[in-house]
Design brief:
two-stranded antiparallel ribbon, about 290 residues, Prot_kinase_dom, about 20% strand, 10 strands, transferase, 2 domains, Transferase(Phosphotransferase), domain 1, six-stranded antiparallel beta sheet
Amino acid sequence: MPATVLNNRFYVDWQNAIGQGGSSEIFQGIDLFSNTGVAIKREKMKEEYVQPCNSPLTREFQVYQSLREQTGFPRIYCFGEVAGYRVMVMELLGPSLEDLVVYHGRSLGLQIVSWVACTLLERIEELHEQSWIHGDIKPQNFLLDATGDQVDIVMIDLGLARRYRDPQTKEHYPARATYTPLGTPRFASIARHRGDPCSRRDDMESLGYLLVYLCRGCLPWQGLDGSIDAKLEQILVSKVRTSPQELCHDLSPEFLQYFKHISCLEFTDKPDYLGLWKAFDDLHQRCRRGEPHL
């Protein structure tokens, strides 16, 4: 596919992808109006994606449109079709939290992790307030944004997002049998592994795994051997058998407090975002002052 100028504004050379997801590729382009970089996500228009509702990229665009008045989500410049592909042009951000972990030698200090926890709680609460659940919470799906006065974190990759309630009436949908995409096994909730209906508590469970991962650089269910199916089964068994106390061993008490809270949530329950935010913010302030945290 030759280089293209999208919407008479965004130049992209399709030869070198900078990233890849389950159904799409990501390229870096140039906004010819401002001479700044942009990210361009491209999805092949497969037969099963003929209906827009079946296209992950179309769904992701629709979610971003519903969030365009909110902070902490990328700006979308255009969406359309070109040469058998759906394409979405968005602001170029990064690095990701995964990049940050690698840069810092596979683990982050508590001062950084507590700040990340507060910021991601705000992002997830805002997403949930707009009646969406993310479905694939992981470090790669949060990008640092240093374009403003302060560094912020932006949530991306909403192709697996689903409505968990009616956006007009705010009535929670019942737990009905339906196809539930797994997302990323390392951070997926136990319910997602089992294919059970998911709600806000599943995003929160995945966030908990993410925060522990940022502290330790790994999780107990990493590095397993066997076929893909065997590994998925082993990951599920490990998650079920690993108690919150084991998972949070030697971590600041706020982490165990977090998992105890989400383990008590019923399917339709609203998480205590503010209470959890206050706990991690207090931890962050203590770290900044150099006070003990254990």
